[in-house]
Amino acid sequence: MLHIKVVCLGKLKEQYWREAEAVYLKRLQIFAKVEIIELKEESFDGKMPAVLIKEKEAQLLKNALGKFQDAFLIALDEHGKQFSSVEFAQKISVLTLAGNSQLVFVVGGPLGLDESILKMAKLKLSFSSFTFTHQMIRVFLLEQVYR
């Protein structure tokens, strides 16, 4: 069975996003074991430079990702590769057929991911040239994996 981890900064704040996530997690349990790992995002109060926030968040992510050394790491990034839904499903199929039984998706906070995390990724994935909140992307990701 495919194991999918979604490592993300921040929690889903609105109830409707939590409900949507729960729906997809339930649907996916037939095909894959999916685990959401939420890490505390840095506060965005303007006192700390954005680069420092991203570096601190990167350290949290590296600590969490250290447990998944053998996994295929996919970072969600606005400059990453875009797939159609069919192409994305095919990519997941190809990865699993190639022996990747564990996929780890990394979702950054409002500032995105630090370059050090992007360099660790085997694939950088973009959902659109539009900008979406990291809460929306979590649900979009689960929906596309399900699709």
Q: How would you describe this protein?
A:
- The chain is built from five helices and five strands, in the order βαβαβαβαβα.
- 42% of the residues lie in helices and 25% in strands.
- α3 links the parallel β3 (72-82) and β4 (102-107).
- It starts with a strand and ends with a helix.
- α1 (15-28) packs parallel to α5 (134-146).
- It has helices spanning 15-28, 50-65, 85-97, 115-120, 134-146; strands spanning 2-9, 32-39, 72-82, 102-107, 123-126.
- The chain is an alpha/beta fold.
- Give the spatial strand order of the biggest sheet: 2-1-4-3-5
Q: Which percent band covers the strand fraction?
A: 25-35%
C-alpha end-to-end distance: 17 Å
| Low-pLDDT segments, ≥5 res | none
Roughly what is the average pLDDT, rounded to an integer? 93
Secondary-structure element sequence? EHEHEHEHEH
- Globular, elongated, flat, extended or rod-shaped: what is the shape? globular
What's the total number of strands?
Answer: 5
State the major sheet.
Answer: 5 strands, parallel
- Number of H/I helices: 5
Structural class: alpha/beta
Helix content: 40-55%
Computed Rg:
15 Å
Tell me briefly what this model is.
The chain has 147 residues and is of the alpha/beta class. Helices cover 42% and strands 25% of the residues. Strands 2-1-4-3-5 form a five-stranded parallel β-sheet.
List keywords for this structure.
147 residues; 25% strand; single chain; alpha/beta; five-stranded parallel beta sheet
Describe the protein's topology.
Layout lengths: L1 E8 L5 H14 L3 E8 L10 H16 L6 E11 L2 H13 L4 E6 L7 H6 L2 E4 L7 H13 L1
Parallel strand pairs: 1-2, 1-4, 3-4, 3-5
Helix pairs in contact: 1-5
